[in-house]
Amino acid sequence: MKAARKLRQLQQPQSLLEYVRQFLTPQVWKQARHAVPRQRAHPRWDLQPLLIVALAMTWAAGDSQAEKFQTARAFYVAAYEGRKRPGKTLQGFQKALARVPLRQFQALAAGVRDQIRRRCAARLLVDGFEPMGCDGSRIECPRAAELEARFRPAGKDHSAPTVWVTAFVHLSTGLLWSWRLGPGTADERVHLRHLLATLAPTALIVADAAYMGYELAWAIVQSRRSFLLRMSSKIDLYTLEHATLTTWSEGPVYYWPACVRTKGKPPLPCRLIRVPAKGQAKNDVWLLTDILDPARLSLATAAKFYRWRWRNEGLFRTYKRTIKKMKLSSRTVRLVHREAEASLLALQLLLAHADLALRSASKSPVEGPVISPRKVLIEIRRELNGNATRRQGTYAQRLEDCRAESRQQKSPKACREWPRRTPHKPPAPPVLKTLTDEQKVLLQEHIGAT
Fold this sequence. Notes:
Layout: H1 2-10, H2 16-21, H3 26-33, H4 47-59, H5 65-79, H6 90-99, H7 102-124, E1 130-140, H8 145-150, E2 162-170, E3 175-183, H9 188-195, E4 203-207, H10 214-222, E5 226-230, E6 236-239, E7 250-255, H11 258-262, E8 268-275, E9 285-289, H12 299-308, H13 310-322, H14 333-361, H15 373-385, H16 395-399, E10 431-434, H17 437-449
Helix pairs in contact: 3-7, 4-5, 4-14, 7-14
C-alpha cells in the first residue's frame, strides 16, 4: 500500500483528482480529522466525501444548488467507486456540512498551505521577500431572517447582510494564501493581525492606505515580518531635521502619533519612499516600510511590489465573477461560514494546481500569474460532467491551453465611471513634521531603553 502511494506521488498527475490529491494529501486529511474529536462512529457523510462534494459544487455549473449537488455527487461516486456512497439529498448534505466544526476547515486550509509552500518554495521568494498583498471584500448573503439578525447592515440602511473576507495573496504568482471571515462590519486590520501567523518570516506585507495604523504596524514588526503600506494625508511622520515633501525621494522617518507618545510607547523607525508618477499614473505614490536599508528593498522593488497589489483585486474578481460567489446561497449563519470556507479553499486549489502544472512546464522562469482561471474552470467542469473525449487529451494536456494572455496594460483599469458611485480619489501625501527638542529628548530615552 505504501509502495503504491509513493509510486503515485512520483508519477505526473493526469486527472483533476490526481492534481487535487497533491495538496489534499493523506497527511492533510489526518491533520483535519485530529483537529476535533470524532463524535459519530459511522456517519453517512464522512469528512472526505463531504469536502470533495463541497469543492465540486463550487466548481460546477448550474442554476441551483440542487443541480450543482447532483453533478458534484456523481463526480465523487464515479471517482471513488469502491467506497461507501454518500447521501443522495441536498438537505442531508447541508445538515452534515453544518455539523463540521470550522476548526476542521481551518486545519485543511493550513495543510493545503503547507503543501503549496513545499511544492512552490523556490518561486515564492522574489528579491529576498515573499510579497503578500492583503485586502478585503464584502460578499452578499440572502435576506434570511437569521442572517439579517446576526449580520448588521454594513452599507446603506436595510441593505442585504454581508460577510467580510480578508485575504492574503502571494503577489508574484497570484495564489490565494490565507483568509479570515467576519461580519460585513468587521475590521480588516484586526483580521490581518490574526493572519500574521500564516506568513513566513520573509513575508513582506503590501497593503493600501486603509491598513495604516500604529498598532498594526507595531504588531507586524513584533511578529518579525515586514510591511510596505501606502500613506495618506491622515498620517503624520516625523524627521530629525527639517525636510519637505517637494524634494523628497526616500529617507528615514519616525511613525509616532501623538496618542502613542502620550501612552509612553516607543516610535517606529521607518523609511518613507516616494514613487514618482509615471505613464498613466497622475499622482505620486507614498509608501512606508520598516526596512531601513535601501540595498535590501530598493525604490524600484518597492514600486514593483505595490504595483502588483492590484492582483488582490483580481483574485476577488475571480472569486465573485468567475466562481460566481458574488452572493452566497446559504440561509443560516453556520452554513454561510462553511460555504465561504469551502469555496475559498476551492479557489485556492484551482489556482494552486494549475499554477504548479503550467509553471513547472515553462522552459524559462515566469514572473507573474501564468494561468487563466476562467479557462481552468472550464476544463474542471468538463471533468465533473465527464464531457472530455480522448481526442481532447487528458486533463493535464488540456491544462496547457489554460495559460494567461501576456499583454502590456495600456488602457485604464476602470473603463468608465459607474453611476451612484463616488469617483476614486488617490490618497494625498502624508504630513511631514520635524521633531521638537522635547520630542528628541523623549526619543533618546526610548532608544537608550532598547
